[in-house]
């Protein structure tokens, strides 16, 4: 189960309050679970800093869920390795990731994901990953214009006609 989405942003929840909520409502579920998905922010008190705080507040009763948006595969790889090095006892789940509106559009996203998927599959501590976003370009633009502007529509997993996109075909 995945729970809170980027609670480290805009003071949505303190790590302590999130840990209390998680332990009360998520821990009792008899299924695999991940900590709230953090943003990729490098601002103090956000991103990996926030994750570190909730892990400390959970005192061993929780586990790591990441988001990432950036400009290159090496940047992505460094972030994921950095998270693993910082929290080596935890498996890693990445529930959103993509290049940030690359100039090459869908072909640049496809090349990035092809490389990222191969690398992620080779990391025994990465147990799940999900590219952003499981929709079509038209639906992303209609329902989340900010995301379409920020990431672009090249990472969508479907074409407007419902068939898998170039990125979506990488998932098969």
TrEMBL record:
GO CC term (a single one): fungal-type cell wall
Gene Ontology BP annotations: fungal-type cell wall polysaccharide metabolic process
Domain Asl1-like glycosyl hydrolase catalytic: start-end pairs: 2-169
Coiled-coil zones: none
Stored Pfam families: Glyco_hydro_cc
Domain of life: Eukaryota
InterPro entries linked: ASL1, Asl1_glyco_hydro_catalytic, GH
Protein name: Asl1-like glycosyl hydrolase catalytic domain-containing protein
